[in-house]
Sequence to fold (423 residues):
Amino acid sequence: MRARPGALSRAVVRRVRRAGESSRVPGCLGVNDSPNLSGRIRVCVADCAGRGEYREGKTSEVDGAKELVVSALGARVVVRVRGDAAHPFVDDLWQRWRRCLADLDVSDDSSRAARQLHYTLDNAADDAVAALRRRITIDVTAAALDHCRGEVLTLHAAGLEVGEVSYVFVGPSGAGKSTLAARLGRRFGYAGDEAVAVDADNRLIAFPKPLSLFATPAGDKAQVSPDSLDLREAHATSRLAGIFLLDRRQDAPRRATVTPVPLSDAIVALARQASYLPSLEGPLQRLAGLARAVGVHRISYRESSDLAAVLEHAPAADSTIWDWQAPRDEHVLGTTEGGPAVRRVEVRDAIQDAEGTIVVLRDTDLHVLSPLGSVIWELSSQWLGFAELEAELARITGAVPPAGLVEERVTELAASGLVTVRR
Fold:
């Protein structure tokens, strides 16, 4: 079956982007704001569906080190601190991480292995204590993201539970996620301020860690217990009902505005804030399916408190905006043997939106193809001569492409590593 002629015609005429100017996402697909990890957490503690399931953990002492066990997005992380100031530090850490604590009474067999994090604290000065709290938050979060690699989608986002469903607020560091969670978490369930996960059933996996809130003019962040802020507790998992891309700015309307984000733009935005995305099976199709199921909206606002009304009347997913399909293999008959020809390369994943625009993930680079580039890429599943390609485009659109335009787009696709050209 051929692609819809009407869609291809619009794609050729509407020159939205050139392939050479495609959105690329270099380096954004690993751990956000965290060091690379060696090794992998092999197993997680059992998921819990009710409130308070992880709240019975305690501290213990092993080989002179004070320890506690944290459950982070399913990963079991053992935090061990030794040194002169270790005992009061870990007791305080227990209070800050109470909502993420795991039971210490877990058999130590290989099927339940946990990541071990070791620290030393001899200096009880405030700056040393605060620095170690920040380090532990970063390391535990990184361990959690590494554990989720290839299993569930993880997003750099805050999460709030509203009734029986949850919403996530996606954005880079400094976008206001923690501030939003701190202010709205008193009214809605707090499910995380920096990292959340979404499983294959589109259920949010909460990570109610201490909130990282700016505490000094220099930009240092304090790790603040959600209990000390009187934030409401959320279920460990809940049905995800919507995704919001944060757009906080002082010139935003006084009343927060919510705008649906077209699928290709939504995928780029989410990919930039996803960890280990290429490790998932069908990563772009996973993002597209999630967008189709729950919707992706950009929310422009001035203050976090303005968003409460949005959550109480959250928009539903618009199925027509986020429709998509996997690109089809278009076989064009009559391809000339020899001579200039083009063929697309194997890629990690690709999706096509309702307008005919194709988004491609090759290795760790994300490309949004131009309308004409999308058509060329779809038609070139096998070697296709330039003459046959131009003839097929003319047949589809009813107009001969301008001289040199097809070769220009093919050259751009080749420069991006998306097609191979035979001269």
Notes: The chain is about 25% helix and 25% strand. Residues 1-57, 108-112 have pLDDT under 50 and may be disordered. The first helix runs from residue 5 to 13. The two ends are 29 Å apart (CA to CA).
